[in-house]
């Protein structure tokens, strides 16, 4: 089992000069928490994908400082998320399954990783998510509501997104051969390129992605409750 942890984001929504994955949460960088969860799990190797030029910082200030033994590669990501994922996949050393996770989601835990494993063994491709608490509207170009999908069919997608390594590798190799507009998650790549259905399993309502200053406050609240 391998994990690819993505920490190549710019953090443009955070209104800060520090990319969101390095912001401090309870005395440690946000990125620390996801790495810790995989380090303490049954995952054998972790590939950390950082922003270009941040590799040595991550190696020293995060991997070495906190003693992560399972991080086998620290590599630079690409322009878009899918470029970074593809580079991560290319660095893998032959694991059967791969867990692709956002470094800005600090609350992944052992329970979520275990549910992911059970699900991927059975379904080959699966994604953490939670049923939407809000009603969702699909809008047109002018922000007029067009349809309202039944709430029971609407899930908010999270990470980890977990796949048979051979399957996700093949899907990405196909993706790289043509136009890649609007690819925002890995499940889309498998659906689009391989025509294989992707199963959702429960992540957690706490498994938030830290993208705005408000999220950082919410995260501090979660940690205090734990």
- In helices, the fraction of residues equals 25-40%
For the biggest sheet, the summary is: 7 strands, mixed
Strand order of the largest sheet: 5-4-1-6-10-7-11
Mean pLDDT: 92
Compressed to H and E, one letter per element, the order equals: EEEHEHEHEHEEEEHHEH
- What is the CA-based Rg, rounded? 17 Å
- Supply the helix-strand structural class: alpha/beta
Question: Low-confidence segments, ≥5 residues, pLDDT <50?
Answer: none
Distance between the termini: 28 Å
Outline type? globular
Q: What share of the residues does DSSP label as strand, in percent?
A: 15-25%
Using DSSP, what is the number of strands? 11
Number of helices: 7
Description:
By secondary structure, this protein is α/β, with parallel strands linked by helices. It is 34% helix and 24% strand. The chain contains seven helices and eleven strands. It has helices spanning 30-39, 55-64, 81-90, 110-123, 165-175, 186-194, 213-225, and strands at residues 2-7, 24-25, 28-29, 45-50, 71-76, 97-102, 125-131, 138-139, 145-147, 155-164, 199-202. The strands form three sheets. It has a seven-stranded mixed sheet, with helices on both faces. The chain has a two-stranded antiparallel ribbon with strand order 2-3. α5 packs across α6. The mean pLDDT is 92.
């Amino acid at each position: 089992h391998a994990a690819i942890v993505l920490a190549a984001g710019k953090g443009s929504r955070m209104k800060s000069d520090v990319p969101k994955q390095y912001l401090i949460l309870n005395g440690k960088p946000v990125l620390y928490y996801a790495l810790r969860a995989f380090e303490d799990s049954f995952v054998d190797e972790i590939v950390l994908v950082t922003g270009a030029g941040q590799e040595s910082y991550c190696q020293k200030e995060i991997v070495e400082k906190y003693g992560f033994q399972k991080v086998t590669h620290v590599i630079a990501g690409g322009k878009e998320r899918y470029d970074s994922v593809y580079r991560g996949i290319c660095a893998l050393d032959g694991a059967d399954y791969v867990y692709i996770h956002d470094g800005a989601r600090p609350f992944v835990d052992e329970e979520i990783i275990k549910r992911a494993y059970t699900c991927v063994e059975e379904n080959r491709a699966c994604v953490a998510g939670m049923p939407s608490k809000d009603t969702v509207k699909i809008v047109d170009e002018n922000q007029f509501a067009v349809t309202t999908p039944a709430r029971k069919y609407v899930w908010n997608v999270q990470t980890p997104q977990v796949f048979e390594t051979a399957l996700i590798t093949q899907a990405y190799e196909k993706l790289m051969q043509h136009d890649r507009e609007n690819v925002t998650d890995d499940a889309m790549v498998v659906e689009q390129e391989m025509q294989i259905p992707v199963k959702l399993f429960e992540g957690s309502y706490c498994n938030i992605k830290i993208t705005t200053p408000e999220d950082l406050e919410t995260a501090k609240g979660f940690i205090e409750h734990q």
